[in-house]
Write a structure and sequence with these properties.
Layout: H1 2-9, H2 21-34, E1 40-46, E2 48-52, E3 57-61, E4 74-75, H3 76-84, E5 90-96, H4 118-126, E6 129-134, H5 152-163, E7 168-170, H6 171-185, E8 191-194, E9 206-208, H7 211-223
Parallel strand pairs: 1-5, 5-6
Antiparallel strand pairs: 2-3, 3-4, 6-8, 7-9
Helix pairs in contact: 5-6
Length: 225
Amino acid sequence: MSKVLKNKYGFNVTLLLNATRADITNKLSEFRDTLKERDNLLIYYAGHGQLNKDEGEGFWQPVDAIKDNDTNWIPNTYITRKLRALKAKHVLVVSDSCYSGKFVRGVEPLEEVQDKPRDFLKRMAEKKARVVMTSGGLEPVLDDGGQRGLSVFATAFLGALDQQTEKVFGTQTLFTDIQKKVGWNADQIPRYSHLHGTGHDGGDFFFVRTVQQIKMNLLEKEDSR
């Protein structure tokens, strides 16, 4: 995942492997203190999740989480509160975890932006975005079953990034492909919507392929003739 984001889309990638609660919360605080208005942020969480039905709260469970003790669990509401404080213009959270659909519960899905004119995409890019894509709804999801030991969702996400031909595209466009591929291969339905209470202003998170990657694709097309 990190290689594709870095090499094909020019992301500056920070990896938190086997992250504890402190690792994740400290990094979110760092983003709050350092990101500027012209910055964009993608947070990709791949790990365990849990749902407290009595409290109506979803959680991320970092590596130091204990099964029946939520002391080190990270509530969805904590994450949205941190995102609300960010100065970055566009923020996308991707949550590949069980019960992650709690992030979008009760929130209307975003408008489909495929095949829209370029000026529409420009207007979307000018607006503030706080959006989330989840690997499923309020149910457990597969943490394997994909290629190279990845989850079905992660495989679909990477495949969608690899196969995009447009130089610039919104996450809604990416999601349409991901949802179909996951639905074909697993009993789970990914969700995509804005994050309620975070200052979302109708925008979307956009991916921009690097110039080098575009040139490589052009060369491949020439070679295939």
